[in-house]
Structure formats: structure tokens, C-alpha cells
């Protein structure tokens, strides 16, 4: 089964800490538990999304700056 | 030009508020909305609705071209910006007028002057309105620094002229401490920013936030008395009142007169608010800034003066002269507003979007609930958390607090947590009953009372 990191909140998904900063993670990067993989903006407050499992990123099913629902996959891990 | 069709360039409770005012004036309304707000109350109440983009505000409510296109499409002849979003965007105001429409607000140039802190401070001083005493620019010479400190009075805040983010800030309570801190502050500023220049400002330790509502028609201006909004969390107002419970009458007259002087000096048109810090200890007040729009907490002023501020804004924008002389505007009773937000007070006020499963709205004498909610509506995660404002009026402040407690008891919102439990606790708090608070009162209170914010008192 594909391992996924899910959005803990509904809101807008951001893959970078600020518009002029590089993305937190790229496909091929390995992540450990606790690594920040992105931000969810909900009602003007920004919440860091951290990895709850370990693996190598194979894809981002959610696009940068797009709305996401709680429980929607943000990252796929191989 | 008499307005026939008003486009509301906003969302949420304020869009509903503006649509209601327009309808009462016989003006047709157009709601513009993002994809996330297609089923919003404002869209349901407006005569017409136009989608202007995806949920993100930057791609919808902040998109000037999309809003102007919606106005062209619907042949709207006026735009009301509400608060937030483009309300204080001078370029938007100019663009609306350039497109041949009426802008319900002050001229773009008034927004520019008052939106610039330095320009606003200069305009205030020119109109004789007191500003927070400070060094009026950078200071490099210790002798000059001492003279300025003595002139403005302790405690004094010393900041790096090139600074930001709180670095290089020192507070000196007397001259001895000042002498010790000046070289430190300068050295730190030099190390952090490569510039040892400093500036100084008086510290107002126990300040109340008091603001004056003004109305102007470009020629003449009046005030509608003050509001006190000292209960704040992270600089966001939480509980607002009119009038201020503690302002002596003579001080009220001086404060309100200063606001009218500034509004008149800049030829202000529409509704505006001048915000002040009021120092209980010394009885001094200081202008901080002017908001060139309708404010969230405007209903408390409406309740104590009987003036519909949003309606007056629309009338003035349509070319009518101000309908009131100062003597016509009387203060009656006391009003309180609390902000009902989709936040969980028991979890550090974490925002909580969702769906409203059930709603019971408070009613009865002296109660008003300005809201975007209806049963079954969704509260999207893309915008601020304000769901509505519960406003009460009564003949005096103790009765108004009792009425607020009663109205909060009636309010029931199911489907998501709200800030109602916070307001129930505040309504029972002895310090609130005495109006014994200031702008930094609420945050430590929240820490002390964190354990009680989880309960849902019934």
C-alpha cells in the first residue's frame, strides 16, 4: 500500500515557507518523522505539516497553493 | 449621482450588512463571490451574484480587474468595499471612479495620506491632534537623546532606527537606566543593522484603545462619539463597547473634537475611524491611526446614536450632504459587541472551519446578531474566522452586560467550536464589570483562565 502524508486540516496547501523561498521537500527527498513538508493556511493562520512516517517522496498529489480537505493526501512516500 | 445598483466587493457578515442597507434605500445589489462562497448568505440575499474566481482571496476578492468586470457585466454604478480586502486600497478606489462608478468611501488620495503612518502623523499634528510623543526621526547624539527623553517623559522606548522585529528595543524607566541603555542599544543596533542610529517613543504602559467614529461629506464632518476596544488578543479586538465606560465627559468632548478637526482638515468623505491610545493614569490621549472605511465594530455606535452608518455612507457617496449637525447626534445608553469566531478557545483559539448543523439566534429587546450564518451553511477555511457579531444595547452598562450574558446563553452554533465560551466568561468577570482593563489585559487573563475556556457554561 502507498504510504501517504495526509492534511491534518482543511485549508490551502503551501509547499514553501514563503513565496520567495525554495520548497520544503522535492520528489526524491527522504523524509523522517517530524520533518516539515508544507504549510496549511486555515483562516489566515499558518500551520506546519510534519511527516508522521519515514520514506522517500514519490509524488505530491496536492498542488502548491491549492485548496485541500482534511484527510486529503499531500505527499506520497515510496 | 444617485446610486441605483451597488456592487459589494466583500464577503461574510459585512457583505450581508451592506446589502441590507442598500435594499432599505431601494438600491439593487450585486454580490461578487469566490467559488467557496457560491452558497453564502450574501449571495442569497443580493439581487444578482457574480463569481469572480477561485477560493484564494488573492485570486478573487483582491482581484481588482475581476471585480470591475463584474461591475461592467451587471451595470453596477457604485462599489462598496466593506472592510479588509480592498477597502483601503487607494488604487482600487481610483480605478472604480475612473470606470465611471461611485466609490463608497473617501477619495483615493485621502486613503493614501491616512494609510501612510508618517503622513497621517503629520496631518494629525497639523490639525492639533496629539500623537504618541517621540523623537520625530533618528537621534545620533547622546546629549540630544537625553533632552528628548526628558521632554517626552519616562518610561521611554529606545528603538533602532534601522531596526525591525523587536531587535534593539530597550525600555528605560528613569534617566539612570536611560544613560546605561543608550550605549547598549546603539551598539546592538550597529551590530545588528550596521547603523547605530536610534529613535525614541514614549511608552504608554496601561493604555486603553479608544476610537472615534466620524462621518464627513467632503466639506463638513461630525463625530458619532467613541468606542472602546481595549479587550484584544494578538492585537485583534474581541469585545467592543460604546461609549467608553471610563472616559470623563470633558475628555470625551476633547477627544471627539480632535477627531472632527482632523477629519475636517483632510476634507474627509464617508465613514472613518480615528484610533487613539488613552492613558488612564495621565488622562492623555494619543492619535495612532485612521481607518478610512467602515469598521467591524460599527454597530455599537449605531446602537447608541440611532444612526445607520452604512446607510449614511451610501447616501454621502451618492452625493447627499451630511444629514446631521453635531448637535443632532446624541449618545443614549450603552452598547456592547462581541465577535463570534470559528475558533476553539480550549485549543489556543485554533481556527475551525466546517458546516453549521444547527443554529439558534438570540433575540429579544436590545439584541442584534449581524452574521453570515444560516443552518446548513459552510464556513470555508480560506478567509478570516469571523462568523458574526452579537450586539446588545441597554440603558446602562451593567444592564447591557446582563443582556449580553442572556443573549450569549441563547446563542447556539452546532457543527464547529466558537468563541462564545470566552465571552460568557468575560461577561461574568469582575474586572470587566468594572471596565478595569487595558490593551494588554486580556492575554494574561487568557493564560490564567485557560482551564476554564474548555468548559461550555450553560
Walkthrough of the structure:
The complex is a heterodimer of chains A (78) and B (458). Chain A has 78 residues and is mainly beta. Chain A has one domain (3-77): OB fold (Dihydrolipoamide Acetyltransferase, E2P) (Beta Barrel), CATH 2.40.50. Chain A is 0% helix and 46% strand. Chain B has 3 domains: 5-104, Rossmann fold (3-Layer(aba) Sandwich), CATH 3.40.50; 142-202, Dna Ligase, domain 1, CATH 3.30.1490.20; 207-452, D-amino Acid Aminotransferase, Chain A, domain 1. Chain B is built from 15 helices and 22 strands. Chain B has helices at residues 12-24, 41-45, 64-74, 90-98, 108-115, 117-126, 142-152, 175-193, 249-265, 298-305, 309-317, 397-410, 420-427, 430-433, 442-448; strands at residues 5-8, 28-34, 48-53, 78-80, 102-103, 156-160, 170-172, 198-202, 207-217, 221-233, 236-242, 269-279, 284-291, 334-341, 343-344, 350-351, 354-355, 358-360, 367-371, 378-379, 386-394, 412-414. In chain B, strand 4, helix 4 (90-98) and strand 5 (102-103) form a beta-alpha-beta unit. In chain B, helix 7 (142-152) packs across helix 8 (175-193) and helix 12 (397-410) runs antiparallel to helix 13 (420-427). The mean pLDDT of chain B is 93. Classes of the chains: A mainly beta (78), B alpha+beta (458). Chain A binds chain B through residues 9-12, 41-45, 65, 67, and chain B through 36, 54-56, 342-343, 350-351, 353, 381-385.
Q: What attributes does this structure have?
A:
heterodimer; A: 78 residues; mainly beta; OB fold (Dihydrolipoamide Acetyltransferase, E2P); four-stranded antiparallel β-sheet; 46% strand; B: 458 residues; alpha+beta; Rossmann fold; Dna Ligase, domain 1; D-amino Acid Aminotransferase, Chain A, domain 1; 3 domains; eight-stranded antiparallel β-sheet; five-stranded parallel β-sheet; 15 helices; globular
